[in-house]
Amino acid sequence: MIRIATLLCAALALPSLAVAAPCGNDSSGFAAWKADFAQEAAAAGVGERGLQALSQAQYSSRTISADRNQKSFSYSLEKFMEVRGSNTIIAQGRQRKANNPGLYAALERDYGVPAGVLIAIHGMETGFGNFMGDTPVVSAITTLAYDCRRPGFFTPHAISALMLVDRGEITNATIGARHGELGHTQFLPGNALTYGVDGNGDGRIDFNDVMDALASTANYLRQKGWQPGLGYQPGEPNFAVIGEWNAAGVYQQAIAIMARRIDG
């Protein structure tokens, strides 16, 4: 974990570096941008496999379309929960907890995060793994690092994705969400690199494995300040930590409501 944190710190310094190729709002400059970005990536510690994945990355028009059309976070809480299927998540979440109480008890013992919170996030993000994305992660995240809208935010995640390729945890062909998120709970690559843990004990971190994904999610929340045994509703100490997972107010409130109902 120390080495992972060191690598990410190097990546997080990247926005201050000069970028020879300009950002762009269409595919026309992507190839030139990749050539220059490869030099930055190599300087940050990305190895041969990561650089090869970068060279194979394709400009993702579907990623740009998704980034320009994020409407649900502007809904009212009631509309957001309806659109995102909260009643189904709660019902299925209660059943998942009942079917495997030992798993969730172990996660709460190790990280202090209650089952309801982890289950609500899992359900909200991918419908419990039923849809984990349709876009190559490396292509998606490098497209966003190149795009002029938010390159400062996505550049460290692009570096991290290439480091994950170096580590053998993803490949250029790994499929994720349209913003480059990975697996059951949709980790951005920088967070995957820093907070990922081997939940099933097989010696590797695979975000498409539900145990690894849930343990990593619990670890993320704990490292972001989750206080075991304290509340997570609005105004309670752990509610702000849900905001570390997603900055949208309606998302945070929905997770708190669903988690409370799942936990009974």
From TrEMBL:
Positions of the EF-hand domain: 197-220
Signal found in the keyword field: yes
Signal peptide: 1-20
One Gene Ontology biological process: peptidoglycan catabolic process
Molecular-function annotations in GO: calcium ion binding; peptidoglycan lytic transglycosylase activity
Family annotation (InterPro entries): EF_Hand_1_Ca_BS, EF_hand_dom, Lysozyme-like_dom_sf, MltB-like, SLT_2
Pfam families assigned to the protein according to its UniProt record, in alphabetical order: SLT_2
PROSITE patterns in the record: EF_HAND_1 (PS00018), EF_HAND_2 (PS50222)
Matches recorded under CDD domains: Slt35-like
Keyword Signal on entry: yes
Annotated Gene3D superfamilies: 1.10.530.10, Bacterial muramidase
Keyword vocabulary terms for this entry: Signal
Protein name: Transglycosylase SLT domain-containing protein
Organism: Pontibaca methylaminivorans
